[in-house]
Amino acid sequence: MVALALVATERPQAATQPAALDLAAFASADDATAPALQPYTARDGVQLAFRLYESRAEASTVLVLLHGSGWHSLQFAALAGAISEQGLAHVVTPDLRGHGFDPTRRGDVDYIGQLEDDLADLINLAQARFPGAQVVVGGHSLGGGLAVRFAGGTHGRLADAYVLLAPFLKHDAPTTRPNAGGWARPLVRRIVGLSMLNAVGVRQLNHLTVIQFAMPEAVLAGPLGASATTAYSYRLNTAYAPRPDYGADLAAIRQPLLVVAGDADETFIATQYEPTIVAHTDTGSYIVLPGVTHIGLLTDEATQAALGGWLEAFNLTHRP
Questions:
Q1: In 10 A of CB 167, how many CB atoms?
Q2: Rounded Cα–Cα distance for residues 26 and 36 (Å)
Q3: Are 127 and 60 within 8 A, CB to CB?
Q4: What number is the average pLDDT over the span 181-194?
Q5: What number is the average pLDDT over the span 35-61?
Q6: For residues 142 and 165, is the Cβ–Cβ distance under 8 A?
Q7: Helix, strand, coil proportions of the chain in percent (round to 5)?
Q8: What integer is the mean pLDDT of 77-91?
Q9: SS3 of 61, please?
Q10: What's the start-to-end Cα distance of the chain, in Å?
Q11: Which residues does residue 94 pair with via DSSP β-bridges, in sequence order?
Q12: Where do the DSSP E strands lie in 208-292?
């Protein structure tokens, strides 16, 4: 009864504060200049979509980049294009289930763990397309959190390396600013209540909304506004992030790891990544970029240089 009361007494409401993030890049994104979305079939028969930035060179690596909360694969257009043009990797950028231009159910999945299964299916497709290639799984923000979760799950060994770009680890991790700098409005009582219900096997209410995002009106009113996702269900929000013991997910990363963040990030504290993550795994390299913001990390040339240099070294030492 206490759990049900917690769920019932907090409901979604209109955003009351603007996000601290500068999301102008989302409002000006151009779908026409990026590779077209391609379909792939997940294990449940549902058609999902991805973009492929195929390198003209004979790249020996496939880099899968997972987008952050509220948006989709277009956020990686500049970074993925730069990496593929340099011949460092073929870059695959999926629209995660529940996101993008035409999801089956926006902001929702069927079960906790489904995003990991979808990613495993996409990796299998990429390996069939590029036989023998090394697979690097990376993500930005909450997409970085999904990469961490994937590492700690049953499919984690499908990745030969991991790249985390300003990743979300947990709401109270030393790396996270309160409410992610105003971007996220979690329905805390509802999350607590649903967690209590799930602990005793009651999952019938997992479709309920538990978090909202302060997507600016300039984005929502723009040409891609309909592709934004402004709220998540309990099961999608849980499936997207590392497990509550995120340290155990991090400890599962025994492969090479790169972590990059900007010291002007509005949502996360870049200098806290290294001390937080090295407590669980010693395979990482850490780069803090001066003057780079959370969204700026996606387009800044310093990010391209940092990731490109790391991939070049990885390719030299991990040839198939």
A1: 32
A2: 17
A3: no
A4: 89
A5: 94
A6: no
A7: 40, 20, 45
A8: 96
A9: strand
A10: 56
A11: 50
A12: 209-213, 231-233, 257-262, 284-289
In the chain, the amino acid numbered 252 is A
pLDDT of 178 strictly over 80: no
Distance (Å, whole) CA 256 – CA 75: 24
pTM of the model: 0.95
Question: Domains (ranges, CATH) in the chain?
Answer: 2-317 (3.40.50.1820)
Q: How many CB atoms lie within 10 A of CB 153?
A: 18
- Single-letter code of the amino acid located at 306: A
In DSSP notation, 136-156 reads: EEEEETHHHHHHHHHHHSTTG
DSSP summary character for residue 268: B
**Longest CA span, the chain:** 61
Here the tokens at position 129 are 């397309």
- In the three-class reduction of DSSP (H, G, I as helix; E, B as strand; rest coil), residue 101 is classed as coil
List CB contacts of 1: < 8 A, sequence separation 6 or more: none
Query: CA–CA distance from 98 to each of 47, 104, 155, 207, 306 (Å)?
Result: 12, 7, 21, 12, 31
Please check the confidence at residue 181 and state whether its pLDDT lies above 80. Answer: no
pLDDT at 28 over 70: no
Please give the backbone phi and psi of residue 291, each rounded to the nearest 5 degrees, phi first.
Answer: 75, 5
